[in-house]
Amino acid sequence: MKFGLFYEHQLPRPWSEDSERQLIQDALDQVELADRVGFDYVWEVEHHFLEEYSHSSAPEVFLAAASQRTSRIRLGHGIIQTAPYYNHPARTAERVATLDLVSNGRVDFGSGESSSEAELGGFGIAYDEKREQWLEGLEVAIRCMTETPFTGVEGRYVSMPPRNVVPKPVQKPHPPLWLACSRRDTILLAAEKGMGALAFAFIDPEDAKQWVRDYEATLAERCVPVGLAVNPAIACVTPMMCHPDEDTAIARGLEGGNFFGYSLAHFYVFGEHVPGRTNVWEEFQERRHAHGYSPEAALAQKQETLGAKVAAGDTTGLRGAVGTPEQIRDFLRRYEEAGVDQVIFVLQAGRNRHEHIMESIELFGREVLPEFAERDERLSAEKAERLAPIIEAALARRPAPPPPMPDDYVMKAIPKRMVDEAQFDAGREWMEDLANKQAVGEQDETFVRGILGG
To answer: What is the dihedral sign for C-alpha 382, 386, 389, 392?
Structure first.
């Protein structure tokens, strides 16, 4: 089983002029440390307008910066919003491929729909069309990455003529594909499309075991891959804070983990939000105090939170991967036994402190991670061998490739097209002469004046 870090770039109010810069720089330090101690992945989300909950609107920029401070950790888009109204598929393909090049082939390509009014309304996407937009954008982006040239598309949400989209990614046929999942139906959708399932829901290992079974059954029965390769993996997200003393771990990680869940629900379920005005952190604190809840009380009672169930037989009420190295190790073994391929930790949440996050990463890397790394190669190889015939059958079900580009298609420069349409012979002669001059390095004053004049 592998391990990753997950970033929303949470930033509860109040903010200073330097808050966002410091947030990003701290996160880069954390990723650099995670790479050094043996973490396998860093996952960065794409969200827009979700103040306090997520200040991560350009994940490709953050991941590119992380790529230059690391050497082995994989850089996961978790996720890109592939609906064409968010991101044109050609731009998605270009950014993913460029990141793959600057990182020497370390990119994973996760995608998803998003369902917040802040984002859907901000980009003019109807709620009942978001899945169709996600899929069309993803399909076209994959084609742009893998076809030379891309032969064009006339879809419902995107229309694009033939173009050769460059650059192409290092990884062939394309980086591994993942889908953001929060419910059983999207887990099954990931299996149907041959994509890894990024389970962005706090589920315990026993629930994860059933999700793994359902995913693999669907993969075997009705997978038709959306890409040219299948990524049969399941990753689960859980809150994390590691310290030799359990009470210290809970005191450091509890409030941030709770704010993560509250701010998510604020934008996706129950919130009313005035852009630039609503204080989500303040509302979070007011609701907690109104119900007699405080971090001190929770610590004293060791209450179950975040929707994570109490570990079987664990009377301490461990919350996800929040606790001592031994507690976390025992908790994670249950994910491993359930067949989960990766556990992704939410450390940067609420007002969790940078120095505490760094301590947790280093302690986990030293005292917990090595045991799982020793087993990972063998378990991954066994799973790959077991699923090989299932994947082969799934790839055989892929539909026929898109039609080739028409033999007579040609893309003309705009002046060339205008001259040809006007059947302007003098213009054709001038363009022929210009081409010859440019080939030998001669300067044409008419051409230079036209270019400089816009």
So the answer is: negative
Asked if the model's pLDDT at residue 318 lies above 60, the reply is no
The residue with tokens 């890894």 is 196
pLDDT at 309 over 50: no
Domains, the chain, ordered by start: 2-396 (3.20.20.30), 414-452 (no CATH)
- Contact between 101 and 132 under an 8 Å Cβ cutoff? The reply is no
pLDDT tens digits, 405-448: 989 999 999 999 999 999 999 999 999 999 999 999 988 777 76
Q: Is residue 152 left, alpha or beta, with left meaning phi > 0 and alpha meaning psi from -120 to 50?
A: left
CA angle in degrees (0–180, nearest 5) for 102-369-256: 80
pLDDT more than 70, % of the chain: 92
Q: DSSP letter string over 55-124?
A: --S-HHHHHHHHHTT-SS-EEEEEEEE--TTTS-HHHHHHHHHHHHHHTTS-EEEEEE----HHHHHHTT
Q: Strand 41-44 and strand 107-112: pairing? A: unpaired
Task: Tell me the helix, strand and coil percentages in the chain, rounded to 5.
Answer: 50, 15, 35
CA distance 241 to 356: 8
Strand partners, 343: 3, 236
